[in-house]
Design a protein that fits this description.
Elements (H helix, E strand, L loop, with lengths): L2 E4 L30 H15 L5 E4 L9 H9 L4 E5 L20 E3 L2 E2 L2 E2 L3 E6 L2 E6 L14 E4 L12 E3 L10 E2 H9 L15
Parallel strand pairs: 1-2, 2-3, 3-4, 8-9, 9-10
Antiparallel strand pairs: 1-11, 5-6, 7-8
Length: 204
Amino acid sequence: MNTWFTSDTHFHHKNIVRGTSEWGEQSQFVLRDFDTLEEHDEALIANFNSVVKWDDELWHLGDWSFGGHEQIKIFRNRLNCKNIHLIFGNHDQHIEPSNSPYRGLFSSVQYVKNLSYKIDSMKSGKYGKTKLFLSHYAHRVWSQSHHGIIHLYGHSHGSLPGIGKSMDVGVDTNNLYPYHLDEIIDIMKKIPITFVDHHVKETN
């Protein structure tokens, strides 16, 4: 089994596609270079299915689809991978409610709440000797960041560089493909731990 990471597919989102967007020139840097929604969606599906296999594991860090809640199931069914985990993004409101019928489309869905308000959706996982902190949003510090835990995020579509051992795994940073875990590890090996507050290697 291979493990993959991605974010911000935005399936069927007209405003992120150059040929259909109504966002205007100010958002040109986030637009994907397709004439139609169909071209955009087909490219994403083809890219993912060409590398992610049936028994692989895919972690999607939020913002699955747009264009109505029915699109959630359409694109989930078109991806061959059976093991897709979703970290909630800010545009996954049709999936997030505990009674949502779309939760069952995913192997797991993750979110963390603190008292009465929602904080960044996140999940910590450990793959072999590599520990990961997953969130839709980029963090300046995260759980055990001062001990080299890797933080993967999305949301920013390549416009927000990582701090220390963190990186944006959204499709816009990887030619509309997901990242393989081995690729992420290779990238992070070359990046030193960054200490941004009072926490250093010697602290808990």
